[in-house]
Amino acid sequence: MPRFTVHIRDEWLAVPCRDATNNIHWLGQEALKRYVKNKPDNGGIKAVKDTHFVVRRCQSLGLLDADDTIEDVLEDNDFVELAIEGDTMSPDFIPSEPGVSHLTAAYREPGEYISLDGNSLTSTDLVNLGRGRYKIKLTPEAEKKVVQSRDLLDTIVKENKVVYGITTGFGKFARTVIPVSKLKELQENLVRSHSAGVGNPLSPERTRMLLALRINVLAKGHSGISLETLHAMIQAFNGSCLSFVPEKGTVGASGDLAPLSHLALGLMGEGRMWSPKSGWADAKYVLEAHGLKPISLKPKEGLALINGTQMITSLGAEAVERAQAIARQADIIAALTLGDIHTAASPPRADRSGPSASAHCWTLITIHPRLQRATGSVTECRMPTPCDVVLSAATEDHVSMGGWAARKALRVVEHVEQVLAIELLAACQGIEFLRPLRTTTPLEKVYELVRSVVKPWIKDRFMSPDIEAVHRLLLDQKASVKYYGR
């Protein structure tokens, strides 16, 4: 029997539907009946039949017509939002949060797999996993190592040995021994207490990278994670069930504790979670809609899930891959620009007046080495205390702030991409002024690529959409593909 998850105000309701030929209005009224039944004051609703509402998809916020039949517009386990007339939209479904990229909007469940062993994953593979191009599975060798590691940890617990993070507290409480009956609660509370990030959530692509990289590290068999829990994480990844992970909050001390805690919290069925089917919804409902159960943490597993540098590393990997991609395309764009200006008249020997800025020296331009030495000296002489504040009751005296560094690196790369997108648009516009002359065949292909998404400017118009469209081409490395044919 089909079942739908309906969000009304602060409640999520599971509504079964015996007859899929019922219409959307029937689904809304059925959900309202259940909502009123669960509220002592009927939720302020006097009569369900007199209540006006609209029904939207949780993902994409598409408005559903009240007269459409359910079987025509919804699939089993779909998530919808019911907005009662006069209510403000739930903050869970504000379109600007978290911001859906063109990659997210175009997501399709992949059919290919990448086998993880904890050692051979490349940054290119990681970015492709983030883009949803592959599912994950473990190698037999990795599974064997994970089982061996967990057997050792279970022996420690069984023999009541005192080992940090397994049978003790953390930080200031490292010398406090925890009874076996409390070990599960210890791990769950560790995750909950460190889920203290702030800001907008990571995009689905970056959360996929974070989850994939954590799975890869755990596949090494060094953490004591159980194979059951690791398989549950893989199933969540393959179903694109992604926890709400705020982008701010990590100091990079014992790793990215806050973002990884948020990642684990969703897998535990707490907090919020995103999937292509549901959009943002309560984690327990998202997991249930995909046939998954929340993870039940065993001794040491909370620590195993959150103690790592996967946010720093995954964002850093994305920055490296995007920097390399835009560097390759920058040469193509420079060639187009140079082709536009080569016919411009210049005074004889003009290049002697400024050779460092001449087009043939573009690849050699750099920051003045004296400036680099000066800024380096300033950095080396900074006092460590105000920069690296102690934390965890002074048990940790250095924090890397690597999460901020990774986000900053991504922002710098994005700025370069946007500047080059504008230059590419200008170069293509310059070609319009040189017609009927033509540039080289590979550059003509790049020009045609740009013209497939942006028309020539023949009068003033709103340019931001044009810049964004070309920026997407560069993100997808389509200029390189067109130019090099691969």
TrEMBL record:
Molecular function terms, GO-annotated: ammonia-lyase activity
Keywords carried by this UniProt record: Histidine metabolism, Lyase
Highest taxon above the source species: Eukaryota
Pfam families associated with the record: Lyase_aromatic, Par3_HAL_N_term
CDD domains: PAL-HAL
InterPro entries the record matches: Aromatic_Lyase (IPR001106), Fumarase/histidase_N (IPR024083), L-Aspartase-like (IPR008948), Par3/HAL_N (IPR021922), Phe/His_NH3-lyase_AS (IPR022313)
Limits of the Par3/HAL N-terminal domain: 5-79
Gene Ontology biological process terms in this record: L-histidine metabolic process
Coiled coil (UniProt feature): none
Similarity-based family: Belongs to the PAL/histidase family.
Protein name per its UniProtKB record: Histidine ammonia-lyase
Protein species of origin: Collichthys lucidus (Big head croaker)
